[in-house]
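Hey, I'm writing a tutorial for new members on how sequence and structure tokens pair up, and I'd like a real worked example in the thread rather than a made-up one. If someone can provide the structure for the chain below, I'll link this post from the tutorial.
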Amino acid sequence: MKLILVRHAAAIVSNENRYLTTEGRQFFRKTARTMLKNGVDPNMILTSPHIRAVQTADILAETLSYCGPLIMKDELKSDFDMRALQKHLNDYQGIEELVLVGHEPDMSILVVSFLSLPERFDFEKGTAVLLRINGNDLRAPATFKWLAKGSKLITSRKEAFSPLNQSQT
């Protein structure tokens, strides 16, 4: 199955009810268009209930002309891990393409776990990673397909996860 992990776009930093900045919305619209151009067509979008994540998921849904619901999951607020993912995959049998919109460090921890990366991955705000996973066995190796970062699509695993690339915007 296809699993698309999305880190919410840039948000204000002043309080708990953080919402997306104008720049964050603009940047994520580019990321969402890149995802659309590369065939993203999810069966389901799960999002953290935090405003910044819901707004990011909404931009994605609108760009993709996604007709399903944006399902808010409290577990995506923090400490979302492989166990939580497996629970959702069990709850929603038959999903072929799933988008998760969440936060750091959870999204990068999932990428590192799935790809057995040697070090931490800095999952930048407003970016998305497409992985091909075995939904029945999350311990099985995953395949990196691409990283969407604004209008840039990175298909090289080496380029996507090199420290030099991660620090550039």
